[in-house]
């Protein structure tokens, strides 16, 4: 996968760097990103769509999957647009020098402060989630003497059959405005008439970690049908059509997501077929992959600590504890997520024994309840694969853990792009009012 290989010592190597040397130099837990693979993914994802779609294509990286200033720079260098979902993500992107006109601003509740910040910065598109936001944005933009380009997020009303916590296309989603109820059309009509608003088109995001393209095909058809309905009702022809992110990745050998090529084949033929059916011109086709660009490029390194063997009637259960857990990867606890794991120093060994890997939180934070790992000893380094998406970004300080460093590896070089937090970082927000200082 990417630049990963097993070197002459039998160690896992990424980007030309021995993972044991990385662990020794930067400490663990450590997030390692294969920079070449991220860059290649950005290019290939864009290429497969521009090769197939007759109109303009814009691919935005969904920053929520993994956002640091270095990543923002990389996204810009590779020519992608950027999707942000909060004032904090927007601020990070702007501070890294990302061009505001290539930013899409998402979220189901943007505060007045966030709306004003985005308008002032000149964000390319707001993806407006609801009629309340539309009115607030109109007022704020008009107050700044500006006209803000927007997309309207709609719910196509389809169930993507992924984990319930990451399904968003169904009718009862908290995101977007229902197409079938007629509310979406009414909101489009309002958007077309409001001052300060330049309505460009529609957006949907149906869910995440989708392992086939059917739901995207269905969504594409419904979305294009809605573009036709808008033209019918108002005469306005959308120039933008955004079908969100959601393409899944291979966490386990049993996962078989479509390749980029297969995904683009399905999506583009569904979009083009529907456009032709309704005799519509080709809008700009927009996509927002997050996980599919970065997940497989990330590996988390942990040090193995105490190993406990518990004798049960039918078998011996082996608990292998690692020096991270819930705070650097909440996904197993939140979504029952599973990963492939190697012992970094014996990367080719047989995985003939099963263990339970737990974190070091005051919590039963099982990272892997049943993991075929093979021989393992205290002091070994474990390499958890496919942790490049929604790991660093979802990390917390629970139990006052310091969030791990992130290194980008590339051609034998490792650069820290996010420093491991220090104990003092943990105290940076602390304030002690005088009465707490008195004896
Ligand atoms: N666009 C929008 C509007 C989104 O809400 C999302 C993800 C994406 C794009 C990117 O989706 P992707 O291509 O990465 O599937 N924390 C969860 C995933 C939450 C996804 C939220 N929205 C996880 O760890 O699985």
Name a few traits of the molecule.
Lyase, Ornithine Decarboxylase, Chain A, domain 1, pyridoxal phosphate binding, diaminopimelate decarboxylase activity, alpha/beta, 21 strands, PLP-binding_barrel, globular, eight-stranded parallel β-barrel, 12 helices, nine-stranded mixed beta sheet, lyase, 2 domains, single chain, binds ligand LLP, Diaminopimelate decarboxylase, TIM Barrel, 439 residues
**CATH class term of the largest domain:** Alpha Beta
Bound molecules: ligand LLP
Helix content: 25-40%
The portion of residues forming beta strands comes to: 15-25%
Shape: globular
Tell me the domain tally: 2
Low-confidence stretches: none
Q: Rg, please?
A: 23 Å
How far apart lie the N and C ends?
A: 60 Å
**What is the count of helical runs?**
12
CATH superfamily of the largest domain: Alanine racemase
Overall CATH architecture of the largest domain = Alpha-Beta Barrel
Structural class: alpha/beta
Number of strands: 21
In round numbers, the mean pLDDT is: 96
């Amino acid at each position: 996968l990417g630049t990963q290989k097993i070197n002459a010592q039998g160690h896992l190597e990424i980007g030309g760097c021995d993972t044991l040397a990385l662990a020794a130099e930067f400490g663990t837990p450590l997030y390692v990103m294969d920079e070449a693979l991220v860059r290649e993914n950005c290019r290939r994802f864009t290429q497969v769509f521009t090769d197939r779609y007759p109109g303009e294509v814009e691919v935005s990286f969904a920053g929520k999957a993994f956002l640091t200033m270095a990543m923002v720079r990389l996204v810009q260098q590779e020519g992608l647009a950027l999707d942000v979902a909060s004032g904090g993500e927007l601020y990070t992107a702007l501070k890294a020098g990302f061009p505001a006109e290539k930013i899409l601003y998402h979220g189901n509740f943007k505060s007045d402060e966030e709306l004003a910040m985005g308008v002032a910065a000149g964000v390319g598109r707001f993806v407006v989630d609801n009629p309340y936001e539309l009115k607030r944005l109109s007022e704020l933009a008009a107050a700044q003497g500006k006209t803000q380009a927007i997309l309207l997020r709609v719910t196509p009303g389809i169930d993507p059959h992924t984990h319930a916590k990451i399904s968003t296309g169904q009718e009862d989603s908290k995101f977007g405005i229902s197409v079938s109820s007629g509310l979406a059309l009414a909101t489009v009509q309002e958007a077309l008439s409001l001052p300060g608003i330049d309505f460009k088109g529609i957006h949907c995001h149906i869910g995440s970690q989708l392992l086939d393209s059917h739901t995207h095909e269905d969504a594409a058809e419904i979305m294009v049908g809605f573009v036709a309905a808008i033209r019918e009702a108002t005469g306005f022809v959308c120039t933008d059509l955004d079908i969100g992110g959601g393409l899944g990745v291979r966490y386990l050998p049993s996962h078989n997501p479509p390749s980029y090529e297969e995904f683009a084949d399905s999506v583009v033929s569904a979009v083009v077929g529907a456009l032709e059916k309704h005799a519509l011109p080709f809008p700009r086709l927009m996509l927002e992959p997050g996980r599919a660009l970065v997940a497989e490029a990330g590996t988390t390194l942990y040090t193995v600590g105490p190993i406990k063997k518990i004798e049960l009637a039918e078998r011996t259960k082996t608990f292998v504890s690692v020096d991270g857990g819930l705070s650097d990867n909440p996904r197993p606890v939140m979504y029952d997520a599973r990963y492939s794991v190697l012992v970094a120093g014996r990367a080719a060994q047989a995985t003939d024994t099963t263990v339970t890997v737990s974190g070091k939180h005051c919590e039963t934070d099982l990272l892997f309840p049943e993991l075929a790992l093979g021989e393992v000893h205290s002091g070994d380094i474990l390499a958890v694969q496919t942790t490049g998406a929604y790991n660093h970004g979802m990390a917390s300080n629970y139990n006052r853990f310091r969030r791990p460093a992130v290194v980008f590896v590339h051609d034998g070089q490792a650069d820290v792009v996010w420093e491991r937090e220090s104990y003092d970082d943990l105290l940076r927000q602390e304030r002690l009012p005088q009465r707490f200082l008195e004896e």
